Amino acid sequence: MDHQPVVMYCTSVCPFCVAARHLLQAKGVSWTEVPIDQQSEKRAEMMQRSGRHTVPQVFIGDRHVGGFDELNQLEQRGELDRWLAASGE
């Protein structure tokens, strides 16, 4: 399925990162992971883009979703598919 590019800033041990991965996998969505525990310079990039210091931080296209809670809320409200399919406006 074609969709907006998804980027997730994460760490390998964060349980919320694991939950976000599972949700995206269940949706059949591919994503790019930016492991801030392995690429420490990416932590500053994540904080600049999101204004947050916790992981995961998920972006769909140019839109900042937030962490797992916000990603899951989009799914529960039935809005995640629309965000994934959005043309980026």
Would you mind describing this structure in some detail?
Has a glutathione-disulfide oxidoreductase activity in the presence of NADPH and glutathione reductase. Reduces low molecular weight disulfides and proteins. Keywords: Cytoplasm, Disulfide bond, Electron transport, Redox-active center, Transport. Residues 4-89 form the GST N-terminal domain. This is Glutaredoxin. The chain is an alpha+beta fold and 89 residues long. It has a single domain, classed as 3-Layer(aba) Sandwich (Glutaredoxin). The protein has four helices and four strands; from the N terminus they run βαβαββαα. It has helices at 15-26, 41-50, 68-76, 80-85; strands at 6-10, 32-35, 57-60, 63-66. It has a four-stranded mixed β-sheet, with helices on both faces. β3 (57-60) and β4 (63-66) form a beta hairpin. The two termini are 20 Å apart. The mean pLDDT is 93.
